[in-house]
Design brief:
The structure is a single chain. By secondary structure, the chain is mainly alpha-helical. 55% of the residues lie in helices and 8% in strands. It is built from 16 helices and eight strands. The strands form three sheets. It has a three-stranded antiparallel sheet with strand order 1-2-3, covered by helices on one side. Strands 4-5-6 form a three-stranded antiparallel sheet. Strands 7-8 form a two-stranded antiparallel ribbon. The model is unreliable at 282-290 and 371-376 (pLDDT under 50).
């Protein structure tokens, strides 16, 4: 059998790459080159590789050589090479090594990855709190060793409301989803745990009288919190978005509030129309107040609630009030969802539809200040 040779050859069918090496006898194709010097350099590299391989082959035992030949033949039936097999097995060994990563180590890795991905501080703080709680019980265990049964029992034994348990389940799911994507585990066991049953309750909103009492109390006891209350109640911004908002992002001339991507929970820019009944008081307040959240805002709002005789502040009550009264007034789910920063109308319809009556919605959007003897008070006009 003629031994294949490595020689630089001329290729007459190309004006840009007139030289080539024919490596098909060595299970490679043909390589083309612009100059003869480049072709000669590659020829010497190929000869060196084969000589090195020959020296290594001489040092192999006969049974090892026979095993290589058998493996090569068996893989060839499936169109694969020994290099393909080696790469596959090395990847398998790396997965086994990575499976030994502990829950605590993976939690730190996930948090670092989410921070690099640009997730907000509030999301990261909540994720860190729940992963740290999980790591208290499973921190030293390999992530691949956690079973569905253990997760089910752990979630059920949490002393918390069903909604909180659902939040824990979602955040622990983030941890295991990351492990699944990185091929540390084959499946996400959290998906096989039992989800708690959540009672479909209508969101708690402020009544007309409650909101006017709250605004009047704020005006008399802590006027510096009035702007943030109005923006929450009549524009539907989240607390975190209000804390990041600057007054110059409220365009009174054009009648819009701009929530920039860096300040929105969804990282998407949105414009919220200022309702005509509230543009005037916004302008008046802008002369004396800025929208920056005042110091001790939580303490001041508690004082406002006490002064207003309010014993209970509904969770996200002002944002829920905006969504409910706005949807009832407009019956335009797409517009309201966009103003809230939601990506679809599904949650809006399932949560806020028919929470309040249209007549009450009409009164809500007429709430505004009136001045008597230089004293400003709020009422439904």
């Amino acid at each position: 059998m003629k031994r294949p040779s490595l020689a630089v050859r001329r290729y007459r069918h190309s004006s840009t790459h007139p030289y080539y090496l024919d490596l098909r006898a060595f299970n490679q194709g043909r390589k083309f080159f612009k100059t003869k010097a480049e072709a000669e350099a590659e020829r010497m590299r190929q000869i060196t590789l084969r000589e090195r391989g020959g020296r290594e082959a001489i040092g192999l035992r006969l049974n090892e050589l026979a095993a290589i030949v058998r493996a090569r033949s068996a893989l060839a039936k499936h169109g694969k090479s020994i290099n393909d097999a080696a790469g596959f097995y090395l990847d398998h060994l790396e997965r086994i090594r990575r499976c030994n990563i502990t829950v605590a180590q993976l939690a730190a890795e996930v948090l670092a990855a989410k921070q690099k991905d640009g997730f907000g501080a509030l999301y990261l703080a909540d994720l860190r709190k729940r992963l740290n709680r999980f790591a208290r019980d499973f921190g030293t265990r390999p992530i691949a060793a956690i079973t569905v049964e253990e997760l089910d029992d752990w979630l059920r034994n949490l002393e918390c409301a069903p909604k909180t348990r659902a939040n824990f389940r979602a955040n622990i799911g983030v941890l295991f989803s990351y492990a699944e994507r990185r091929r540390m585990i084959d499946i996400n066991p959290v998906k096989r745990t039992s989800a708690p049953k959540l009672v479909d309750k209508a969101p708690e909103v402020f009544s007309i009288n409650e909101l006017t009492a709250l605004l009047n109390s704020a005006q008399s006891t802590s006027p510096d919190v009035v702007p943030m209350l109005i923006v929450a109640a009549f524009a539907g911004l989240r607390d975190a978005e209000i804390k990041r908002l600057d007054w110059n992002e409220i365009d009174l001339e054009r009648g819009f509030i701009e929530v920039k991507p860096s300040k929105a929970k969804s990282a998407r820019r949105r414009l919220i129309r200022i309702q005509p009944t509230h543009s005037a008081e916004s302008r008046n307040m802008a002369d004396a107040l800025c929208l920056n959240v005042p110091g001790n805002a939580r303490t001041k709002i508690d004082r406002v609630c006490d002064s207003a005789g309010s014993q209970h502040w509904p969770l996200n009550g002002l944002r829920h009030s905006f969504a409910s009264y706005r949807l009832a007034a407009t019956n335009d789910a797409a517009t309201v969802a966009a103003e809230l920063g939601n990506t679809s109308t599904k949650m809006l319809y399932s949560t806020y539809r028919e929470v309040v009556q249209p007549e009450e919605a009409a009164r809500y959007w007429k709430i505004g200040p009136s001045a008597t003897d230089n004293v400003i008070s709020f009422a439904a006009k």
